[in-house]
Amino acid sequence: MTGRRWASGALLAAGVAAALAVGASASRGSAPATAASSKAFPTGPVHLTMWWWGEQEAAGAKKWLADTVALYEKKHPNVTIKTVLQTTNGLVPAFKAAAAAKKGPDLQYFWGGIWSLEDAWAGSTKAVSDYIPKSELKHYLNTAEDTYNGKVWTAGWYVQPSFPVLYRKDVLAKAGVAPPATWKQLLAACDKLNAKGITPIAGGISDGWFGGWLYATIGAQGIHSVGDVLGAVAGKKKFTDPAQAAWWTRLQEMRDHNCWNKDINSVQLYQGQQKWSDGKAAMTVTAGSDVKKFVTQVGVSKVGVMPMPKWGTGPYAGRLGATSQTVGITAWTKYPQVDADFIMFMHTPERMTAFFKKTGAFPADDRFNTKLITIPQQKVLFNLVKNGVPYLENFIPTEFDSKANFAEAQLLLAGKIDAKQAADASEQIAARIRRTNRDLIANFATWSKSYK
Amino acid sequence: MSAPGAIAATSIGPRRRRRRLRLGRAEPLVWIAPAFAVVAFIFGYSMVELVRQSLEHDGRWAGLENFRLTVTDPTFQTALEHNARLLLAVPVLVLIALLLSVLLFEALRGWRFHRVTVFLPYVLPIPVVAVIFGQMLQLDGLVNQALRGVGLGSLAFDWLGQPSWALWTMTGVIVWKELGFGVILFLARLLSLPGETFEAARVDGARFFRLHRYVTVPQLAGVIAFYVVVEAITMVSWVFNYVYVISNGTGGPGDATQVAELYIYQSAFQYSAPDLAAAAAVMLFGATLVLIIVFFRVQRRAGFIAAGD
Lengths: 452, 309
Prior knowledge:
The complex is a heterodimer. In chain A, about 50% of the residues lie in helices and about 15% in strands. Chain A is built from 19 helices and 13 strands. In chain A, helix 9 crosses helix 11 (about 240-255) and helix 17 (about 400-415) packs antiparallel against helix 18. In chain A, strands 1, 2, 3, 4, 7, 12 and 13 form a seven-stranded mixed β-sheet that branches. Chain A has a four-stranded mixed β-sheet with strand order 9-10-8-11. The radius of gyration of chain A is 22 Å and the shape is globular. Mean pLDDT of chain A is about 90; it is low at about 1-40. Chain B has two domains: about 1-55, no CATH class; about 70-305, MetI-like (MetI-like fold), CATH 1.10.3720.10. Residues about 1-15 and about 305-309 of chain B have low confidence and may be disordered. The longest helix of chain B is centred in the middle third of the chain and has 30 residues, at about 165-190. In chain B, a hairpin with a 2-residue loop joins strand 1 (about 55) and strand 2. Chain B has 15 helices and two strands. Chain B has a two-stranded antiparallel ribbon. Chain B is an all-alpha fold. The interface between A and B is large, with 59 and 67 residues.
């Protein structure tokens, strides 16, 4: 026991070194992916692995994926696909570790925008547009955020309306509060609900992710285009500029008006949302793909859905973010054409219908039969997402998201810092990333040209 | 049955002797060569690669730039500061472990039960401990509910959600988990001591405090030193599991529970900065190496393990 302990430092160092060394030597030896790869469907045994996530926000996806794999294997008896559901905190690090070793899944789940492109820039994925015909790909929704240098790197699976506010009509009515449409109304609603002993909005930030949601839903209202944010990342603008920093002030206002549950800092996002389901809070913020689950739990007549109340005057104010959760083909897969074929199989009309029926989430495909949407809240959501705007969190480095949005939001909500300190810290973090991750910043500078 | 074997041994004997003569002093080296090669490959190659990577950026020579960037990173500085603060738990661990082991040694009523209770946390997997404490220490968790239930609501803090409390709370969890090891270590040593020493001290009028201050503690010096070094290494480079599970992989709230190991992990596997992770890992390895050297020196000086007592 003790022997293991004193060697722990050496083991950690050796472990990191081994992973990095394998990655370094593998990357030196790997050939770049080209569109010229053979596109003929193999006839010999093919074993694929897919690492995915999504059951957490689109309940029922696991069953749907199992059915889809079974149907695909029936159609192609020489193919077997193993699916591995990842945890929320494990999804990104597990893939980065696999990428370092150039060994792991053939198909990988990615959130949109930077979550997909960061790995494309690192050479860990092949562009799906090299394997999926244009005539098919043009139907996939929100591909723009996964496009870089003219190639689409990952393919949309389902749409993530990001992120609607759900309110409980029964709880608001009890306090005599109308659903707030503007920021002023929201703060007034917080005061009124608190006076009645009702938690205004339930959330959880101990796992960090909610900080990114808040940044996108509140922060997007202050800017004029995604180019503003990409420019700030690249150093052409600053995160202390009024348009970029105003959201911290809004968050501080929410804190000062006690809009959140008192334990927001000590519970995880899903635990916070549960308080709303349990009737202990009037509002919550949730993944759009999860709306059906919440509405079914609480009751169709009791739930309303809306975008984050409006405070800004920019083009994104009062509108919902629209992004697609995607699937990508890894750089080391032996059968990219089979991976691509499976992705296209996921988009067949029968599979899309089954996905929506099973999960309530919208498939990321304009051929999806929208007549299937019958729950009123989902109709509202669909209309909001049809008129949706880019989801801001997908346009910043993931390191910035973690260190600035996640961490500073935790500190601000805990009362340790104010809005100005949060904005200053964000800019310092961005400045450091500009210094330490020069390749990433160069990619951002190129990316920002597509969003002027 | 034995005859053929004996014949074989006799016939093989001279040949063996001849080979030994030819290898001479090099023979031990030949025997350890396979094991040495494995160790050299696993640790040596990895360490060389680690150091190489820490001196490069994108495969190009970067000198000490990665070290400079890492050392000047406020998050890394915070992580080191937290590791240093965790070291404060070591004397606390020693004192409590000493007290408990003495009480158990003195045959406290129900000592068998207490011994199991104290040791149990040490054998529990860290992720299990961290998940359970993470739930119990939430603002509306079991601990605060209990405090409110007995009228101590003013002590119901947001143990893990408040940045100023989070690290100390986590330290408490680590102390709870690590204590059992110290107690068992000390108790084993106490039970191996000759009873006459204690009898003589008692006959001379030494009561509880004086007896253990002047008789027990000096007898335990070697084991205490060993425990101190092992726990110091734990606090410097063995707390990743606690931090990762309790803070949901963030090192938060803010960077309140950030430690060096988590910093390395995040840099390498979350932020695509393997060169900076390598630089931090080299520094952590250096720090651990110092503690390992101290460990061996203590071990050699105390000599209790080699002596078998």
